[in-house]
Specification:
It is built from twelve helices and 13 strands. Helix 5 packs across helix 10 and helix 8 crosses helix 10. The protein has one domain: 3-Layer(aba) Sandwich (Rossmann fold), CATH 3.40.50.720. Helix content is about 40%, strand content about 15%. The strands form four sheets. A six-stranded parallel β-sheet has the order 2-1-3-4-6-10, sandwiched between helices. Bound molecules: nicotinamide-adenine-dinucleotide. Nicotinamide-adenine-dinucleotide binds next to helix 1, strand 4 and strand 7.
Length: about 350
Amino acid sequence: MRVLLTGHQGYLGTVMAPVLEAAGHEVVGLDSGLFADCVLGPAPADPPSPGVDLRDVTAEHVAGVDAVIHLAALSNDPLGSLAPELTYDINHHASVRLARLAREAGVRRFLYASTCSVYGAAGGDELVAEDAPLRPVTPYAESKVRVEDDLHALADGDFSPVYMRNATAFGYSPRLRADIVLNNLVGHALLSGEVLVMSDGTPWRPLVHAADIARAFTAALGAPREAVHDRAFNIGSEVNNVTVAEIAEQVAEAVSGSKVVITGETGADPRSYRVDFSRFRDAIPGFDCEWTVKRGALELADAYHKFGLTREDFERRFTRLAVLRAASEAGAVDDTLRWSR
Ligand SMILES: NC(=O)c1ccc[n+]([C@@H]2O[C@H](COP(=O)([O-])OP(=O)(O)OC[C@H]3O[C@@H](n4cnc5c(N)ncnc54)[C@H](O)[C@@H]3O)[C@@H](O)[C@H]2O)c1
């Protein structure tokens, strides 16, 4: 298939593009490149791309495309809270516009990167399945719920949206992120010797490796229409339904000489949920996640060591909010996150 991969220069897109290509697909990217230079290790070979902002997409960008994988977004809770209206403009309105254009152009499948954050403060020890009530607690998560609703209204016999609700990602990507929990804790452990948990460690935080997300999207792309049409799927594995304190323990085991420090304060993030991932396994026989948290912590520690992660990089280059603040202060982007001319 010819696949339009939006967000191909992001943390997940950089891992997903080669996985799609290895599966025989022709990949075309679409990204405004907000984090294009946030590279740790060898520079990735990006697929061709028109370098257009999602808000400026036109029919020509979806012409001749068989399927869209839509990752581009302001893509975590702190980023989304930076400027809620901007989050709704990019994550919601521009996404639905892209889907409409894709549908008009005859694109048959539209895989949407949603998130388990839609369950918000579900709490409790019960596993949350896809039909659980959605309780988004941030503009980011709310934007994902709105897109799912609007894509559902576009679904028909020729156009199949699929809502891939990813758990929180972890693992090495050539375009690294230090602002997601496992990647962050491993970096802290290496740089300071402390696995610093800025809460009481009790919230549940289901995790999934970036490479497993890439495999899941690739599987959904090739699945029979009736298995995925207009359906939501939690993407991850019950094995990786862990509390923040458990994640910290795994990190301390992976980074020798480090010790866990739990501050005990009430965390700023009220999300807590354990997730049931069985629907996707049932829809795609043979699919399962390959990565555990422990293996991911070892992989990250190795990559950080090998590629010489510095404190400066950790706090600035690989933390999305810091990257955007710096770009804004330097006048490189305007207050709508468009590149200044
Ligand atoms: N990483 C996770 O833990 C996680 C978990 C669940 C869901 N997701 C979702 O997966 C998707 C990808 O996440 P990621 O971690 O790779 O995020 P990321 O921030 O690393 O990448 C997002 C990409 O979107 C691009 N982008 C942002 N605004 C744009 C615009 N207006 N026009 C064109 N491109 C634009 C950025 O330049 C960036 O390359 C997002 O939709 C995110 O919400 C991520």
